[in-house]
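Colleagues,

For the teaching module next term, I've prepared a clean inverse folding example: a structure given as tokens, and then the sequence designed for it. I'd like students to try predicting residues themselves before seeing the answer, so please don't circulate the second half yet.
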């Protein structure tokens, strides 16, 4: 019996009163809590008050037959163990009982009640293991659905058979919407990437061994492409003769942030390389040009009337001017300033940060006034600035609170506000002290200065706001042109 726990509740359904009484007495002596019924109606009344842990059922009860009651119990309570104790010893009756949902089948008269005790113990243990297995499956399913990566499965026709809830934050679709649309996965591939994706999955179907990977673009429900990295394998059918199909299983990872960072790093690398090449070119050309010019001046002093000296000096001046021009144009490579829409940049940043917000239990909102005109600025630096402000809000905000981005017309341009409820009054007080605040806020102030934006903070009614005033034509600092 189970130590320190409530004893299992057994219901015995038997129309033979003397046999039922002996079984009840034996079960109570064994430590079980026992209920009894002489027919199906009484049994259903007991079950309605609270299902027992196990039922002993005689098939030959009056009224509703034991078979009908067994089928009814299997339909309403499939996890409730039912042990048939019947005087029918025919193998056909036992097979029929198992098909109706019986967990075990004993024939009367029982040689001894110890056999009944072993059967009850085994069935209760099976029920316990089933419960543990179901609980583990539910925990596993819950874990899979809340992973920060998208988990998917496709059948051999590339139709979606499973997708976790991360599809909402990553691609803007709910799992239900994705599964309800036939051919959803293939239909939403970026048209330019669809052939290579189909080819990769076809190769996986033909070569089951090993893992596969590729990068491609998938269309977000908002209409823009999302760069993804896929890692997947093909799982063949465990029983091909049963018609059970195989399937492709894998994960999708959002590459937006990585590609954004790589683009910025690549730009900086190109600038550094260009600067090094410029220095080398200037060094290699300037010395011989200076030497040639010196020789021409010496020749001019000795032979003032020689026209060759003037020609050499004139060409040397041209070469030196060319070197200065190269140095001036290549070293201070300007950031690309072009018209861009703040609401589109902010929407990109919100989509990038939404998975992080979900993992850290923050709510993220975004609103923008309609028909906002573009501003002339560096789109990449603006995105870095907004990401730094959102990071600061997440680092110092109250979990569960709403971090809101709003863009509206401002005086001489547009005003972008990032507001959030701070976690503590201490964190709120530090907003004015950049040196003591999060490093991301210091980055935001520096980027705002480079872009010619005005970044201020405001505290009102328990809300901290970062206010970014963006002129229609920002005046950039010298640093921003480097």
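(Answer key — instructors only)
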């Amino acid at each position: 019996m189970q130590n320190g726990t409530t004893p299992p509740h057994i219901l015995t359904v038997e129309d033979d009163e003397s046999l039922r009484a002996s079984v009840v007495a034996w079960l109570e002596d064994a430590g079980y809590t026992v209920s009894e019924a002489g027919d199906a109606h009484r049994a259903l009344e007991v079950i309605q008050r609270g299902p027992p842990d196990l039922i002993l059922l005689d098939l030959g009860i009056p009224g509703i037959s034991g078979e009908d009651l067994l089928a009814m119990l299997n339909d309403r309570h499939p996890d409730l163990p039912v042990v048939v104790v019947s005087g029918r010893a025919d193998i056909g009756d036992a097979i029929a009982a198992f098909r109706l949902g019986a967990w075990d089948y004993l024939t009367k008269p029982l040689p001894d009640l110890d056999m009944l005790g072993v059967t009850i113990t085994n069935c209760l243990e099976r029920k316990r293991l089933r419960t543990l297995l179901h609980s583990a499956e539910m925990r596993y399913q819950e874990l899979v659905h809340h992973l920060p990566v998208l988990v998917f499965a496709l059948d051999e026709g590339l139709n979606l058979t499973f997708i976790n809830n991360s599809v909402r934050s990553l691609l803007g679709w709910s799992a239900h919407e994705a599964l309800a649309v036939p051919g959803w996965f293939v239909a939403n591939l970026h048209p330019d990437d669809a052939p290579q994706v189909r080819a990769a999955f076809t190769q996986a179907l033909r070569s089951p061994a090993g893992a596969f990977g590729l990068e491609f673009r998938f269309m977000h429900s908002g209409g823009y492409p999302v760069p993804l990295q896929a890692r997947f394998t093909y799982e063949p059918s465990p029983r091909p003769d049963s018609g059970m199909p195989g399937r492709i299983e894998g994960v999708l990872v959002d590459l937006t942030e990585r590609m954004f960072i790589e683009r910025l790093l690549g730009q900086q690398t190109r600038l550094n390389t260009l600067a090094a090449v410029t220095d080398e070119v200037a060094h290699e050309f300037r010395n011989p040009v200076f030497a040639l010019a010196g020789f021409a001046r010496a020749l001019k002093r000795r032979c003032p009337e020689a026209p060759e000296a003037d020609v050499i000096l004139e060409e040397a001046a041209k070469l030196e001017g060319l070197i200065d021009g190269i140095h001036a144009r290549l070293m201070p490579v300007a950031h690309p300033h072009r018209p861009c829409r703040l609401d589109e940049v902010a929407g990109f940043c919100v989509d990038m940060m939404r998975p992080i917000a979900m993992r850290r239990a923050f709510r993220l909102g975004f609103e923008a006034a309609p028909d906002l005109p573009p501003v002339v600025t560096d789109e990449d630096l603006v995105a870095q600035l907004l990401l730094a402000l959102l990071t600061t809000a997440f680092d110092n905000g109250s979990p569960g609170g709403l971090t809101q981005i709003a863009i509206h017309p401002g005086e001489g341009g547009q005003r972008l506000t990032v507001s959030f409820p701070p976690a503590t009054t201490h964190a709120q007080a530090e907003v004015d002290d950049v040196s003591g605040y999060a490093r991301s806020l210091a980055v935001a102030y520096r980027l705002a200065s480079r872009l010619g934006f005005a970044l201020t903070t405001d505290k009102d009614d328990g809300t901290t706001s970062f206010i970014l005033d963006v002129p229609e034509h920002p005046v950039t600092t010298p640093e921003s042109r480097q």
